[in-house]
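queue> pop job 88
queue> type: inverse folding (structure -> sequence)
queue> payload:
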């Protein structure tokens, strides 16, 4: 948790460079994982389904108003996440890029809480009525104070009830996985340094009509990419190592907006890639190399490899 630019989450272009830093990596869990091509008679990798709990931290509004996001909006966000990770035809998540890939990773709201009780996978916390002794600058500990489910079994997502002035400036943050993969030091620390999960500005969670290039639910797609080990395409901002993924053309500085430019290799930058700061409206791409990296994390990383068999899925 000590490096400058890359390990932050996603921020709006207006704030590139000004945002605060956070922490990075994680560790510890279990669960056996077989080879990914282990379906008899089927050459396709298995589909991993990961349970998500959404902690809606709000300012005391009724459900569906302001930062107390409606169940419908949360469901729409999960749908978008799946369209993007599954590169679903007929949706904004589809692409026909030669290196584009279906990650075969899906997400569902948890149906069982820790302890086994049925749950909707959505928790609502009125921050205006809940004392929180944690300094607000310690983002992940601060939000985890409102609720934190075992990260070896659930992907924790918190929506942040930020003022309107934060729109387009603060979009989201994610901790990275504990992994042997190179470049993971560029991601924010998770356990045991600090609670791990994903923070999204409520205004940018799910589809909405706010005046913003970030109103189509792609902030969570981007942050989930970090959570599963992906770096920004510009990685540590050097043309040599970059994001440690071979099929994303290297680039030295953040990709912003939908207009490609020429990257390190002379190739156009990949503005459609979810791991950029491009507008939601032009994103539709995870590459084969990125998918391979995310699946490696799910298969080997503590607190990621137990997710596909989590009791939170209801099984
Ligand atoms: Zn990011």
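queue> result:
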């Amino acid at each position: 948790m000590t490096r400058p630019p890359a390990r932050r989450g996603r921020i709006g272009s207006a704030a590139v460079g000004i945002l605060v830093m956070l922490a990075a990596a994680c560790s510890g869990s279990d669960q056996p994982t077989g080879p990914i091509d282990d379906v008899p008679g089927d050459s396709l990798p298995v589909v991993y389904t990961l349970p998500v709990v959404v902690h809606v931290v709000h300012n005391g509004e009724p459900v569906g108003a302001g930062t107390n996001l409606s169940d419908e909006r949360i469901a729409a966000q999960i749908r978008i996440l799946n369209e993007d990770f599954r590169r679903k035809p007929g949706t904004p998540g589809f692409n026909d890029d030669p290196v584009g890939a279906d990650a075969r990773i899906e997400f569902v709201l948890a149906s069982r809480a820790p302890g086994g009780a049925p749950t909707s996978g959505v928790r609502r916390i009125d921050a205006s009525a809940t004392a929180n002794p944690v300094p607000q600058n310690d983002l992940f500990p601060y939000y985890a104070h409102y609720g934190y489910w075992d990260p070896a079994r659930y992907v924790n997502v918190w929506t942040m009830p930020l003022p309107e002035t934060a729109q387009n400036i603060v979009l989201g943050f994610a901790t990275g996985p504990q992994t042997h993969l190179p470049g993971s030091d560029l991601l924010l620390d998770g356990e045991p340094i600090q609670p791990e999960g994903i923070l999204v500005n409520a205004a940018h969670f799910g589809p909405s009509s706010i005046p913003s290039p970030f109103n189509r639910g792609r902030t969570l797609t981007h942050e989930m990419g970090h959570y599963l080990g992906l770096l920004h395409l510009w990685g540590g901002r050097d043309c040599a190592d970059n994001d440690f993924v071979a099929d994303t053309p290297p680039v030295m500085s953040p990709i912003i907006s939908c207009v490609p430019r020429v990257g390190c290799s002379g190739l156009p930058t990949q503005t459609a890639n979810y791991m950029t700061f491009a507008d939601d409206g032009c994103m539709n791409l995870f590459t084969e190399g990125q998918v391979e990296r995310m699946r490696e994390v799910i298969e080997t990383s503590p607190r990621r490899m137990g997710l596909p068999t989590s009791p939170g899925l209801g099984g």
